[in-house]
Amino acid sequence: MRSDDQSGSDMSEVLDHADRATAGEKPTKRQQILAGAHAVFSSLGFDVASMDDVVKAAKVSKSTLYVYFRSKEELFTALIQEERERYFQEIGAIFTDPGHPAETLRIYGGKLARKLTSPEAVRANRTVIGVVERMPELGRSFYESGPQRAIKLLTAYLDSAVAAGTLRIEDTELAAKQFIELASAGIMRCRLFGYQAGMPDAAEIERTVDAAVWLFMQGYGTKA
């Protein structure tokens, strides 16, 4: 026979699920909370920030906050996911022409380099690196929804270019990883570790990406 405590616990879970489902129908409130969390994480840092800080910044009650997000880890993940959805929608529109891989990769490489060296991306990477040993799931989720997704997207494009006869690649996943590294070579880590305070200028990004495309096409391009 089930105890009253068990029944109460189960009912709490059911109600909690219902509350969260209902809350999901109010995107403006969710955005209000995310905006508050963004402000708090940006000013205090993930480790120092608390859910109470988010409550104050978002101007919501603590009970409302917990209906939408159970923890600041959930909040951080939601912020990253939202930003990445916008980015990947934009990137997906680039990979439509397998007939001209050099130009496609040049456009993609520029967007990638600007994204990886942006203040938001640098801050997010530093945050995850700082907590990953005690929060490995956060690190895994961060990688799967960002770098791994980018690799899969580029791999699919390279497969289409190989099928079109404009590239010759045996391992397209490896090639995708190589291009991503090449497009940010020498500029991303400088930002990540604070050696370079600001974003690289347009000329530096262009020089880096042009070299990446040239080297990639030398190795994988089809010779006329």
Automatic annotation (TrEMBL):
<dbReference type="InterPro" id="IPR009057">
    <property type="entry name" value="Homeodomain-like_sf"/>
</dbReference>
<keyword id="KW-0805">Transcription regulation</keyword>
<dbReference type="InterPro" id="IPR036271">
    <property type="entry name" value="Tet_transcr_reg_TetR-rel_C_sf"/>
</dbReference>
<keyword id="KW-0804">Transcription</keyword>
<dbReference type="InterPro" id="IPR039536">
    <property type="entry name" value="TetR_C_Proteobacteria"/>
</dbReference>
<dbReference type="Pfam" id="PF00440">
    <property type="entry name" value="TetR_N"/>
</dbReference>
<feature type="compositionally biased region" description="Basic and acidic residues">
    <location>
        <begin position="14"/>
        <end position="28"/>
    </location>
</feature>
<dbReference type="GO" id="GO:0000976">
    <property type="term" value="F:transcription cis-regulatory region binding"/>
</dbReference>
<feature type="region of interest" description="Disordered">
    <location>
        <begin position="1"/>
        <end position="29"/>
    </location>
</feature>
<dbReference type="InterPro" id="IPR001647">
    <property type="entry name" value="HTH_TetR"/>
</dbReference>
<dbReference type="InterPro" id="IPR050109">
    <property type="entry name" value="HTH-type_TetR-like_transc_reg"/>
</dbReference>
<keyword id="KW-0238">DNA-binding</keyword>
<feature type="compositionally biased region" description="Polar residues">
    <location>
        <begin position="1"/>
        <end position="10"/>
    </location>
</feature>
<protein>
    <submittedName>
        <fullName>TetR/AcrR family transcriptional regulator</fullName>
    </submittedName>
</protein>
<dbReference type="GO" id="GO:0003700">
    <property type="term" value="F:DNA-binding transcription factor activity"/>
</dbReference>
<dbReference type="Pfam" id="PF14246">
    <property type="entry name" value="TetR_C_7"/>
</dbReference>
<feature type="DNA-binding region" description="H-T-H motif">
    <location>
        <begin position="50"/>
        <end position="69"/>
    </location>
</feature>
<feature type="domain" description="HTH tetR-type">
    <location>
        <begin position="27"/>
        <end position="87"/>
    </location>
</feature>
